[in-house]
């Protein structure tokens, strides 16, 4: 059974280790280090949701307020646990949190290599508002009004 919960920054080492597995080789750069996570999150009030199965961390999302919107910065599911609705549930948790905390929209930057995330966001009603990047770094900025 998959358990979803909110966690805190003290769990970043476990989250970074998971995300290194999830994102390794997907992008032209190495996955973020623990120090990069800590630096990025040092000046924001973040919300971290995780999914666990049998006490093993299998997915996470990290979000925070950015430019007046709720911004999902990281969302990843371990390859062994995809196509089980986990990412959909993490999206839902972020959207509910954003709405209950007075945000009118959720925004996420999705890289082209994450076509499954692009498809899921579109199914959830997210609309593309910007495209950018070159070669392996092409991305979409998508948003959902709550």
Word description of this protein:
By secondary structure, the chain is α+β, with helices and mostly antiparallel strands. It has a domain at 2-103: Aminopeptidase, CATH 3.40.630. Helices cover 30% and strands 37% of the residues. It contains four helices and seven strands. It has a seven-stranded mixed β-sheet, with helices on both faces. The longest helix is centred in the middle third of the chain and has 15 residues, at 86-100. It is globular. The model has no long low-confidence stretch (mean pLDDT 94).
Task: Give a quick precis of the structure.
This protein has 146 residues and is an alpha+beta fold. Helices cover 30% and strands 37% of the residues. It is globular, with a radius of gyration of 14 Å.
Secondary-structure class: alpha+beta
User: How much helix is in the residues?
Assistant: 25-40%
Question: What spatial order of strands do you see in the largest sheet?
Answer: 1-2-3-4-5-7-6
- Sheet having the most strands: 7 strands, mixed
Summed up, the helix count is 4
CATH superfamily of the domain at 2-103: Gcn5-related N-acetyltransferase (GNAT)
List the helices and strands and how they pair.
Elements: E1 2-7, H1 12-23, H2 34-41, E2 46-53, E3 56-66, E4 69-77, H3 86-100, E5 105-111, H4 115-123, E6 127-132, E7 139-145
Parallel strand pairs: 4-5
Antiparallel strand pairs: 1-2, 2-3, 3-4, 5-7, 6-7
Keywords for this entry:
Aminopeptidase, 146 residues, 7-stranded mixed beta sheet, 30% helix, alpha+beta, 7 strands
